[in-house]
Write a structure and sequence with these properties.
Blueprint: E1 2-9, H1 16-19, H2 24-36, E2 41-47, H3 51-58, E3 62-66, H4 72-84, E4 89-92, H5 94-98, E5 109-111, H6 116-129, H7 134-137, E6 143-147, E7 150-153, E8 180-182, E9 185-186, H8 197-201, E10 205-206, H9 209-223, E11 227-230, H10 239-251, E12 259-264, H11 271-279, E13 282-290, H12 294-301, H13 307-319, E14 323-330, H14 337-349, E15 354-359, H15 367-374, H16 391-394, H17 407-431, H18 436-449
Parallel strand pairs: 1-2, 1-3, 3-4, 4-5, 8-11, 11-12, 12-13, 13-14, 14-15
Antiparallel strand pairs: 5-6, 6-7, 9-10
Helix pairs in contact: 2-6, 9-10, 10-11, 14-17
Length: 450
């Protein structure tokens, strides 16, 4: 008998920024099921809209939804629709991992943390019983579910190690364009106050250089890819792996066939790193510089980084022909107008290829969330769409954490950054008309990585 699984990526499809890149996370789940049940007739479909229509057309046996906090309202609605068709509903992603208490009655089970091994056990249970029985769910690690209206959390599942055990994501289920992206690690050795990703993944782990090259080769040979961005929280955290990667790219005759981009941290950028990246054909990097005010930078990123690191990183990367872009955050609780203008002045004087600007958003699971909660600005029953990080679209509803500036003042300052963005875009277009599509993709990449 064929078993059909419908994966639903809960995103706002009216925002191009949310649909620009394929949902590799769901692709990893599908490939894990394929690898563990090779004899079964499994059919998968990954969608991000038209849930009712897709259910009626595809007729799935299980619905599995993934969501971040700002889209959790959508996930709740999708679960209600799936329940109208009496489907078992699995929910996963960062939001439900850090806030399992928001599980609704329409959701049969939540996957807490990374899901490749958990989804396999849940599917095995479904194969046996054709439904999720509470007493059986209690035997599976890393999940949450409701029993008599009470939340049950099973013991946390051990992290997958080595990470190479995870099969390549099922890209045949999603649309792959050029440029595209890969994940080569999970987690980050740092804990920025606003970052939910590092809390989700736990300890940092890395795919090996061999695994990376296998995936790069697959993308080149099967999709004709010649531009790949590594979307790790901090790709350069494992320096030895970088050194191992270079000879493997040469061996597979991939060196020079593909250009790369990645996230770096300014305090880790030095001459040695830049030389290695250049040899591997890295042409672009993104950095979360966040602020040019030393006081605000320390609040956001801790004591391990300073503004001098920012200046040096930009200089070194530019020197080696690697174009740096960056993202910045305004609106911290004690940040003043002068602090914000200090950041804007830094950007204007910098040689950054491009930049993006955000207003500090209290994402669940972070210290910033706890601060917002202490002030009564957020709760478990809030309108989750207020956490939309696109402040330009959401400025009238966004949660303002500043104790120094009003919503209107922050918005007017925000617009000054957007004006500088436009100025830079015009200058870049005039100088490099043939490169503008790639430039825009770089800006989208920064925004999606937040």
């Amino acid at each position: 008998m064929t078993i059909k699984l419908l994966f639903i990526n809960a995103v706002d499809t009216t925002r191009a920024i949310q649909t620009l890149l394929p949902p590799l996370g769901l692709g990893y789940l599908a490939s894990s099921l394929r690898e563990n049940f090779p004899e079964d007739k499994l059919q998968f479909k990954i969608i991000n809209k038209d849930v009712r229509e897709e259910i009626e057309k595809f007729k799935p046996d299980i619905a599995a939804i993934s969501s971040v906090s700002q889209n959790y309202q959508r996930a709740v609605e999708y679960a209600k629709i799936a329940k109208e068709y009496q489907l078992p509903v699995i929910i996963g992603g960062i939001h439900i991992t850090v806030m399992p208490s928001t599980l609704t009655k329409e959701m049969d089970v939540a996957v807490i943390g990374e899901g490749e091994e958990t989804i396999v056990e849940l599917f095995r249970l479904y194969k046996q019983k054709r439904k999720f029985i509470k007493k059986d769910l209690k035997k599976i690690k890393g999940i949450a579910f409701k029993e008599r209206n009470r939340l049950v959390l099973t013991p946390r599942r051990e992290l997958i190690e080595p990470l190479n055990k995870v099969p390549l994501p099922a890209r045949d289920l999603i649309t792959i364009g050029n440029p595209t992206y890969m994940f080569t690690s999970r987690g980050c050795p740092y804990r920025c106050t606003f970052c939910a990703s590092s809390r989700f993944w736990g300890r940092v782990r890395f795919f090996s250089a061999e695994y990376m090259v296998k995936e790069i080769k697959y993308l080149v040979e099967n999709y004709g890819i010649d531009r790949i961005d590594f979307w790790d929280d901090l790709f350069i955290a494992h320096r030895r792996r970088l050194n191992d990667l270079l000879p493997l790219l040469k061996k597979e005759k991939l060196l020079g066939k593909v250009s790369f981009g990645c996230m770096v941290r300014s305090n880790l950028v030095d001459e040695g790193l830049a030389k290695v990246l250049k040899k591997m054909n890295f042409t672009r990097t993104s950095m979360g510089l966040e602020s040019a005010s030393p006081r605000i930078l320390e609040y956001l990123k801790g004591e391990t980084i300073n503004v001098k690191n920012h200046v040096n990183a930009i200089r070194i990367l530019k020197k080696h022909g690697i174009e740096p872009s960056a993202s910045f955050i305004i609106g911290s609780p004690t940040e003043t107008r002068a602090d914000i203008l200090q950041t804007l002045k830094f950007i204007r004087k910098s040689r950054l290829r491009g930049f993006d600007i955000y207003v500090l958003t209290p994402l669940p699971g972070t210290p910033v969330w706890e601060y917002a909660k202490s002030r009564g600005l957020v709760s478990e029953k809030m309108d989750w769409s207020r956490l939309d990080v696109d402040f330009y679209q959401n400025h009238d509803r966004a949660i303002i954490l500043s104790e120094e500036l009003s919503r209107g003042e922050i918005y007017r300052l925000f617009l000054q950054f957007k004006l500088e963005q436009k100025r830079r875009l015009i200058i870049y277009t005039l100088k490099n008309p043939q490169k503008i599509p790639k430039y825009l993709f770089g800006l989208y990449k920064q925004r999606l990585h937040r």
